[in-house]
Specification:
There is one protein chain. This protein has 75 residues and is an all-alpha fold. It has one domain. The protein contains two helices and no strands. The longest helix has 47 residues. It starts with a helix and ends with a helix.
Length: 75
Amino acid sequence: MNNPQSIFISNYDLRVRDYVNSSLSFNVVEKYLHKGGISLFASTIALASMTNFSTLTNIILLGSICTLYSSIGGY
């Protein structure tokens, strides 16, 4: 005989599982994007104060260097 509570939990799990997983995944991705953006922008401001390049040029330059470094196996 089935336990009514276990039936409720399984139905609840089926209804809510996709929503919870997608919202948690979104939060993790959002956290890493914010962290990466802030660290890239902070280093760009420091580099722009020491060079004659604009902030946008430094963002593009540092972003491409970080992407290249990460694509060849760097952390």
